Amino acid sequence: MIERRQTGTGLHDPVLEKLGMEIAAGELPPGHVLTLDGIQERFGVSRTVAREAMRVLESMGLVQSRRRVGITVRPTADWNVFDPKVIWWRLSGPARGAQLRTLTELRIAVEPLAAGAAARAATPAQRSRAVELAATLRRLGEAGELTEFMERDVEFHGLLLQASGNEMFAALADVIAAVLRGRTQLGLMPHKPVPEAMDLHDAVAAAVAGGRSAEAETAMRALLVEVRTAMLPG
Amino acid sequence: MIERRQTGTGLHDPVLEKLGMEIAAGELPPGHVLTLDGIQERFGVSRTVAREAMRVLESMGLVQSRRRVGITVRPTADWNVFDPKVIWWRLSGPARGAQLRTLTELRIAVEPLAAGAAARAATPAQRSRAVELAATLRRLGEAGELTEFMERDVEFHGLLLQASGNEMFAALADVIAAVLRGRTQLGLMPHKPVPEAMDLHDAVAAAVAGGRSAEAETAMRALLVEVRTAMLPG
DNA sequence: CTGGGCAATTGGTGCTACCTTTCCGTGGAT
DNA sequence: ATCCACGGAAAGGTAGCACCAATTGCCCAG
Asked: For B71, phi and psi rounded to 5 degrees?
């Protein structure tokens, strides 16, 4: 589940969001210098708020603050590219395609192992839920219910990441949810999921349910390679 | 290269560091409530400094700030476990072993694909450097120069991650360096690297140099599985 | 005794004013 | 041309204020 704005309140959050987006989008290129004064004036906020937003950006590696010189935008290589906010900002900007590609590579790396681990570590409830979801996916896919299909797909992949028992894998669930949602928004999904995809979802679920780790891993890998080739033209 | 706070300057940094460590270590368990006043008094800093540290912790998902309630420590599942600072804090605390395990799983997921990508995308300089490093590793390993071996190993793995052309993989270089260093500090390394490890380093380097992607991937996977089994007893 | 509403308390939110510290530029002296 | 000293710009840090929201608990009605 992506959770945008659950806090809602907070005056420094809009500032953080806007600056983060602009930096991630490259509108404020590396080397560009901001000042607290400038931020205050631009957003009509106090020094306190400007400083807090700046500190958070600094902790993400997006900027560096030095006395006398100002707030400098840092090169991309220094960013915390695993920070969910940074990923979100890049997915919202012109680098969306590139970010989707690197994230898909990450998915191909992580999700097969997560599925394998899930086959070993999942609870009975998780196993049956996986099978159930795979069946639902087939039904929705054949019916052409694209958005509902996507939501279940998000749940399916999130479930396996959670069930892997590795909290670092589990932490990727939200990010991958954003990838799946962003992919359909970008029109990188076929209008009707290919039958192979449904077969592979079934295969993964069955292998997880049956505790067949290696099988779950290879099926998930095949599924994701399928996903990558499908979005290559995009 | 690990770079612990080369900025040094900054009064809010020690506060952030201490609180982060305590939360990561579980000394401040989920649900525990802090107040800005308490932080001010404890560290002898002003409200501004306490607030900035709190905001950064909040952006890492370690705490949540609510009016009238205070600053609540959030459950582990909400943490940004990919944030380098969070990883560092957990590696420094009692959860070190668990963190090393999840990170090793992540390595097994990511590094083989990164090596495969490096075989496709590396520059000529990177390819020759990889071969050179593998040879150096063999020499150092046979000589039993453990710390120097480790430093070259750090460079080797970082090089391939950088060369993969995927910035998310590249961003893991620092973290993996911390894992390698932490592993030797924890005594989870054999006193003399096993010959197989050296052979596999060679195989990876040769495959990358020769552009044989699949071969680089499988060799790297074998190398990391070796690593995992070696640290399982720990 | 229970429940609902109202008021007091608590603690973060945001603002302003002011001082300190660090360095970047600049300009003058050698 | 080089070096050094100095002024000023901008972040770093402190203090105290008004404000607001949520929680706590009290009080009174049923």
From this structure: -110, 110
Query: Which residues contact residue A155 at a Cβ distance below 8 angstroms, ignoring those fewer than 6 apart?
Result: A133
Confidence of residue A234 (pLDDT cuts 50, 70, 90): low
Output the six-digit token pair for A159.
């479930």
**Residue B124 CB partners (closer than 8 Å, separation 6+):** none
> How many C-beta atoms surround the C-beta of residue B77 within 10 A?
12
What is the pLDDT, as a whole number, of residue A75? 97
Q: Say if residue A226 is exposed, middle or buried (CB neighbours under 10 Å; 0-12, 13-18, 19+).
A: middle
Distance CA B32, CA B57 (A): 14
| Mean pLDDT (chain B, rounded) | 93
For chain B, which domains are there? 12-78 (1.10.10.10), 95-231 (1.20.120.530)
pLDDT tens per residue, range A146-193: 889 999 999 999 999 999 999 999 999 999 999 999 888 777 777 788
What 3-state DSSP class applies to A87?
helix
Q: Is A197 left (phi over 0), alpha (psi -120 to 50) or beta?
A: alpha
Q: Name every chain B residue with its beta carbon within 8 A of the beta carbon of A83.
A: 80, 82-83
Closest nucleotide to B67's CA, by C1' atom?
Answer: C12
Residues B169-188 have a mean pLDDT of 89
The reply to whether the CB atom of residue B34 sits less than 7 A from any atom in nucleic acid chain C is yes
- In angstroms, the CA B8 to CA A128 distance is 52
3-state secondary structure of B71: strand
Ranges A141-145, A214-218, B41-45, B148-152: which has the least confidence: A141-145
Backbone angles phi, psi at A16, to 5 degrees: -55, -45
Which residues 143-172 of B are in CB contact (within 8 Å) with A?
166-171
Orientation angle between helical segments B213-231 and B96-121, nearest 10 degrees: 170
Q: Which of A163, A166, A150, A172 shows the shortest CA–CA distance to A209?
A: A163
Q: Which residue has the tokens 């040769």?
A: B206
- Report the alpha-carbon distance of residue A4 to residue A131 in Å, rounded: 30
Chain A interface mutation, best of B5, B74, B82, B110, highest count of A Cβ atoms under 10 Å: B82
CA of A67 to C1' of D4 (A): 22
Closest-lying nucleotide for B65 based on CA to C1': C12
User: How confident is residue B2, by pLDDT bands cut at 50, 70 and 90?
Assistant: very low
pLDDT-derived band at B37 (thresholds 50, 70, 90) equals very high
Greater pLDDT, A55 or A146: A55
Q: Which DSSP symbol is given to B134?
A: H
pLDDT of residue A45: 97
Quick one: average pLDDT of B111-136?
Answer: 98
